[in-house]
What does this fold into?
Amino acid sequence: MQAVQITEHGDTDVIEYDEYPDPDVGRDEVLVDVKAAALNHLDIWTRRGMPGLDLEMPHIPGSDGAGIVEDVGDGVTRFEVGDRVALSAGVGDLRMDDPTLDPRYHIIGEHVPGIHAEYAAISADNLIPVPDDVDWTVAASSCLVFQTAWRMLIERAELEASESVLVLGASGGVGHAALQIADHAGAEVYATGSTEAKLEYAKDHGADHVCNYETENFADWVREETGGRGVDVVVEHVGAPTWQDSLASLTKGGRLVTCGGTAGGNPETDIPRIFWNQLEIIGSTMATPEQVDDVMELVWDGTFEPAIREELPMSESARAHEIIENREGFGKVVVRPDSELQ
Ligand SMILES: NC(=O)c1ccc[n+]([C@@H]2O[C@H](COP(=O)([O-])OP(=O)(O)OC[C@H]3O[C@@H](n4cnc5c(N)ncnc54)[C@H](OP(=O)(O)O)[C@@H]3O)[C@@H](O)[C@H]2O)c1
It folds into this structure.
């Protein structure tokens, strides 16, 4: 089969789309004929390499994708040949109440081979059914970011309809999902972005108030917009450059929920601001299978919809990485096996 592969850690020139051995299907696995897949910022980290990430090369990336069941292992009862499925990439001990807290928790595509290929053998536990009327691009690009943003806002920050939320990086995968979830929850939604075009999209996806943080300090803007009060919840994933202003955007007793540090993981912080204002800093990663089902139900029925920045053949994966690294566009970048586009 043809598969996207990173041959070593490095820049985009380590990405190839080439022949790779067909996957064997294990007892509890499903062979998926991949129709579409999507990138996450995680694919950039995996390509570049991170401390503690020890991958067998070449590595097939990809933590989001969807397709048709081609074969099933002897132990699989939930799926049969011909079913439509999407990947939910978190792997934890399902006997735990919250598998994301498993010390061995890991993510398909990051720690083990992913789904950016013509075929992938995936544990049945990591597949969810896709309704017949859902487009492949939607099925392939929603699961990771919507589950992340759902857990951040609904489960971890326990957002209430009467509250206000500031979403940073609203044009990104997590950001644009958070906008929609916060809006659906009934909250007043504030959003930041680096261009006017991204901010227009943010308004279309649930933002009530928008700020171009390249031309204005967003913490000052939040204070002004909220009559000096600040917001109840900040959705953080940018990290070092925004951390202090994110804290400064919160009202007393406010909650900052973070899932990432795209632009730096070790910010300076303001301890007096945290204790004096009694702020909560909440970490969040991926979601439990039940939370995935809850949010994906709302994707399948069209309540939430991924915005697609661009759709490319897998052979142009290097360009797909560049779009994310250059912060071009709004939403998700989709890649499809070249054979699907012929
Ligand atoms: N813990 C988890 O479970 C989990 C799950 C998903 C993602 N994450 C993490 O969350 C972060 C966002 O992921 P994503 O897939 O949504 O990423 P993405 O699609 O690349 O979006 C990142 C957004 O951040 C904004 N940004 C601001 N400053 C930036 C900078 N210096 N460099 C790059 N982007 C900057 C950009 O918007 P503007 O240009 O408008 O500022 C961009 O759209 C990543 O760090 C990822 O690893 C964690």
About this structure: The longest helix spans residues 143-156. The chain has two domains: 2-142+306-340, 146-283. The domain at 2-142+306-340 is CATH 3.90.180.10 (Quinone Oxidoreductase; Chain A, domain 1). The chain has a mean pLDDT of 98.
